[in-house]
Structures are given as C-alpha cells and as structure tokens.
C-alpha cells in the first residue's frame, strides 16, 4: 500500500490556464480549415493518460481533468495498458475488465475517450508503441503524455526513452506521497494538481477487506467491481470472457 504523506511543494510548475507550453515539435498548422486544425489556427491537442487502471480512480480523473484545463487540451484519451512490464511482480486483472471500468469512468465527460491500442497489441506494453500508434491514428494531433510523480520518477528506465521525447510533450503531476522531480527538460512540464491520496492498490485492498471504495472510484466502477467480484481474495477476477 502506498504511504500517505503530504503533497510535496515544488517550484517549477506550469499552472496558467492556456499557458504556452514548449513543444518538442512546434505546431505547423497554417489554416483553420485544415483537418485537425483548431479554429484559432493551432493544432489539435490530445492528452494521453496511460495507466493500468486496476481499477481507475478519482486520482487519475482529476489529474487528466486538471492537465486538460491548464494545457487547453481538446481531448484526453485514456489508454489502459495491455501487459505492464513494470507491474509484473503482481497479477493484473484481465484487460477487458480494466478497459470497461475506464469506459464507465470517463463516459460522462465529452472530452474523455478511451483507446484499445495497448490492450489490442500483443506483447509487453511500452509507451513508445502507444505514442507511435496514436501518432499514426491521429496524425493531426500534438500529444501530451500525462504521468504522475511516481511514474515520472521511473521514466528514464522506459523503453526507447530518447525517442519518446520527440513523440509527445510530457506533463508530470503531483501525487501525495511522491516527490515530483524536475528532469530539467523543456519537453517535460510539472503541474500541481488537487491532492488525491488514492491508489489502485489501496482500492483493491479495501475491496478485499470488505471496506468501501465509494467516492474513491466513480459510482459505476464501484458497481462494476461488485458485479464481477473483482479484487475479492476468494473470487478470482476472471468471470468476464477476457482477452488476457
Ligand atoms: N492519486 C493520483 N494522483 C496523481 N496521479 C496519479 C494518481 N494515481 C495514479 N496516478 C498516475 O496515473 C498513472 C496510472 O497509474 P496506475 O494505473 O498505475 O494507478 P496506481 O494508483 O498507481 O496503481 P497501483 O496502486 O496499482 O500501482 C500513473 O502515471 C500514475 O502516476
Ligand atoms: O514504456 C515503458 O517502458 C513504460 C514502463 C512503465 C510504465 N509505462 C507507462 O506508464 C503509464 C503508467 O503505468 P503504470 O504501470 O503506472 O500503470 C502506462 O501508460 C505505462 O504503459 C511505460
């Protein structure tokens, strides 16, 4: 279970609405009528919220919403992982469950969408593949990859990290119990978001111990967990016809 300590104070935060963000690949949109070009002439801004989402919780949703507001994103696509290689020390729920919980959690927000790119791609999940696939599917968009302080701290160990910087702008957000490190790169912004001391680990542990997860995860996700008996020690989370 994650430690619950006060949010770290940081000084290098980009927190102005509609702040100009230094992009690895500056916008080249030239006309408002080009596909994927906004009325203002700028390119479509697509946030990418990658995660295992086992289950998705309000920490994920608040982080995505806050980055969307500050960076003036047009859409945030949530991308559940297929086989997260850095979580191999524990068993992860079937992808189909995690995908459906993510769909339920994001359904009410017209700017939130969910992508299957990672769960439909065989093999281990690497963000380099996520971003390549999204670039191919959405060539008109500038990508903003959203990551919490804990994930950002590991980022130098990610596959093909040198190429990753050229595919997206990265936004690291604060998370209670984790220090948000300044990587000293202009293609990484740091942002303080409302502190949500919630983790998927804690949600799973609560369900296993018969404690409530109401208001930690969206209502529909509470009901989905109960319906399929997810996270109950004696009830394996495999009643759904899953793909992995
Ligand atoms: N409470 C939170 N506040 C801010 N960012 C978060 C929060 N929870 C998760 N994130 C970020 O969301 C992304 C996906 O996280 P993930 O799905 O692994 O959730 P988690 O709560 O960390 O799960 P677990 O407890 O199983 O490790 C990561 O970048 C992570 O840093
Ligand atoms: O590309 C990698 O090597 C890599 C290693 C660890 C995590 N990631 C990505 O980071 C995001 C959050 O991952 P996680 O494991 O914290 O849910 C998710 O999109 C993962 O695919 C990516």
TrEMBL record:
Question: Which Gene3D superfamilies has this protein been placed in?
Answer: HUPs (3.40.50.620)
Enzyme class name: transferase
Report the transmembrane regions from the record. none
Annotated GO biological processes are:
NAD+ biosynthetic process
Q: What is its EC number?
A: 2.7.7.18
State if Heme is listed as a keyword.
no
The record's annotation in InterPro entries points to: Cyt_trans-like (IPR004821), NadD/NMNAT (IPR005248), Rossmann-like_a/b/a_fold (IPR014729)
Q: Which GO terms describe its molecular function?
A: ATP binding; nicotinate-nucleotide adenylyltransferase activity
Q: Which Pfam families match?
A: CTP_transf_like (PF01467)
> Which keywords does UniProt give here?
ATP-binding, NAD, Nucleotide-binding, Nucleotidyltransferase, Pyridine nucleotide biosynthesis, Transferase
User: Which reaction does this chain catalyze?
Assistant: nicotinate beta-D-ribonucleotide + ATP + H(+) = deamido-NAD(+) + diphosphate
Which residue intervals define the domain Cytidyltransferase-like in the entry? Answer: 48-206
State the SUPFAM superfamilies in the record.
Nucleotidylyl transferase
Pathway assigned in UniProt? Cofactor biosynthesis; NAD(+) biosynthesis; deamido-NAD(+) from nicotinate D-ribonucleotide: step 1/1
Q: What does this protein do?
A: Catalyzes the reversible adenylation of nicotinate mononucleotide (NaMN) to nicotinic acid adenine dinucleotide (NaAD).
Record's family? Belongs to the NadD family.
Could you tell me what this protein is called? Probable nicotinate-nucleotide adenylyltransferase
Gene source species: Crystallibacter crystallopoietes
Designated gene of the protein: nadD
């Amino acid at each position: 279970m994650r430690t619950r300590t006060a949010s770290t104070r940081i000084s290098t935060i980009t927190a102005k609405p509609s702040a100009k963000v230094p992009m690895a690949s500056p916008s080249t949109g030239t006309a408002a009528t080009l596909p994927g070009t906004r009325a203002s002439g700028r390119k479509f801004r697509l946030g990418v919220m990658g995660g295992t989402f086992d289950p998705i919780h309000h920490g994920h949703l608040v982080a995505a919403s806050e980055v969307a507001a500050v960076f003036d994103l047009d859409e945030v696509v949530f991308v559940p992982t297929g086989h997260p290689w850095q979580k191999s020390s524990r068993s992860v729920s079937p992808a189909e469950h995690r995908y459906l919980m993510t769909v339920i959690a994001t359904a009410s927000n017209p700017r939130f969408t969910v992508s299957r790119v990672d769960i439909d791609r065989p093999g281990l999940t690497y963000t380099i593949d996520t971003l390549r696939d999204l670039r191919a599917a959405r060539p008109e968009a500038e990508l903003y990859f959203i990551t919490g302080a804990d994930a950002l701290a590991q980022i130098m160990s990610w596959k093909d990290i040198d190429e990753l910087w050229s595919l997206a702008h990265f936004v690291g957000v604060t998370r209670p119990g984790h220090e948000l490190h300044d990587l000293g790169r202009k293609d990484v912004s740091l942002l303080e978001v409302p502190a949500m001391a919630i983790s998927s680990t804690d949600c799973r542990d609560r369900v296993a111990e018969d404690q409530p997860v109401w208001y930690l995860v969206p209502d529909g996700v509470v009901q989905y967990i109960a319906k399929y008996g997810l996270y109950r020690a004696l009830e394996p989370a495999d009643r759904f016809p899953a793909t992995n």
